[in-house]
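Structure first, sequence second, as always.
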């Protein structure tokens, strides 16, 4: 037993074994701050080893962590003037996705059903979501700034449908992706644009700029409206690559996980309503593009060929173009060239 001096200068008797005192000196500890667990409150070595000096409160201001967010989510948040700070992210590692921004933009107001959630109610006023308002402004600007002209042609798809059915099983087994008619349409449109580069152009001030890459956009319907991701350099890709990219883009578009680049890089758009009982329709250009191809339902029609009545599978294709860039003759020639490719699909199959 030894004595130690406390802070008031008074002598106090502290029971501690020599090993504990030696270790306390090494660690710079005051034995008066320790509680002994030995007989009669004697401080043992384990009491010294297990003692932790109380930490002073951390008064430093923590560094603000960088908020993980997709480029598309950042851009939409900036347009809607929404802070990303308090938006919970649903992506990897809590990354804020565009769907999270859209959801956050709707918080604080009573939920109003979208048309596909109940078709609306007669006499009901349905406010637009902010995403839909942005889309509305975009298409309105396109409709009133670019003079549209429209062209239509009927295309026989019997041979294309038959060719797809013949290769479908082997194609899926070899490339691990299911090819669709849309993949043929994307490839055929891209190759036709090679012949007519102005279909890949846009107006810049008083000049016309022809985009160097042919990136075919595919219109995808989502809850908030339409979104158009694009297949890059589609004229240079085989059908298998187009099918993989197209399937991936559509899947991610439906869960709002596209990158901004995948939406903005498009130079020409295809919009199909073939799954509905719609024969044909006109479409507003996706600015600043100069052309959009529309595809109606494929239906069976009777035709007289070589004196015999035959049934043909026919779909009506439409082309909307910016009349500032493309005149009627060029638009008609584009559709005729596309028609020839789709009605004679053998050369497309060479690029599997």
């Amino acid at each position: 037993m030894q004595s130690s001096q406390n802070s008031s200068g008074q002598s106090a008797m502290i029971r501690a074994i020599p090993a504990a005192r030696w270790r306390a000196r090494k660690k710079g500890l005051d034995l008066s701050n320790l509680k002994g667990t030995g007989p009669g409150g004697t401080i043992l070595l384990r009491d010294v080893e297990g003692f932790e000096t109380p930490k002073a409160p951390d008064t430093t201001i923590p560094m603000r962590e960088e908020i993980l967010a997709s480029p598309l989510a950042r851009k939409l948040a900036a347009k809607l003037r929404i802070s990303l700070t308090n938006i919970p992210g649903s992506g990897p590692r809590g990354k804020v996705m565009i769907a999270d921004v859209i959801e956050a933009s709707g918080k604080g107001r009573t939920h109003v059903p979208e048309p596909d959630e109940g078709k609306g109610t007669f006499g009901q006023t349905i406010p637009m979501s902010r995403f839909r308002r942005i889309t509305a402004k975009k298409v309105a600007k396109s409709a009133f700034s670019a003079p549209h002209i429209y062209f239509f042609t009927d295309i026989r798809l019997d041979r294309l449908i038959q060719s797809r059915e013949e290769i479908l099983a082997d194609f899926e087994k070899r490339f691990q992706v299911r090819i669709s008619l849309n993949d043929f349409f994307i490839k055929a449109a891209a190759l036709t644009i090679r012949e007519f580069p102005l279909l890949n152009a846009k107006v810049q001030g008083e000049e016309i700029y022809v985009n160097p890459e042919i990136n075919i956009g595919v219109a995808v319907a989502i809850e908030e409206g339409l979104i158009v991701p694009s297949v890059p350099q589609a004229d240079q890709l085989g059908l298998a690559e187009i099918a993989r990219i197209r399937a991936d883009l559509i899947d991610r578009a439906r869960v709002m996980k596209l990158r901004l680049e995948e939406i903005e890089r498009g130079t020409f758009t295809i919009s199909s309503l073939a799954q509905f009982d719609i024969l044909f329709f006109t479409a507003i250009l996706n600015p600043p593009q100069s052309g959009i191809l529309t595809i109606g339902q494929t239906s069976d029609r009777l035709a007289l060929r070589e004196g015999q009545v035959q049934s043909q599978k026919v779909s009506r294709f439409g082309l909307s173009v910016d009349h500032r860039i493309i005149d009627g003759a060029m638009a008609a020639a584009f559709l005729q060239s596309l028609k020839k490719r789709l009605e004679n699909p053998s050369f497309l199959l060479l690029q599997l």
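Margin note: Residues 158-175 form the longest helix (18 residues).
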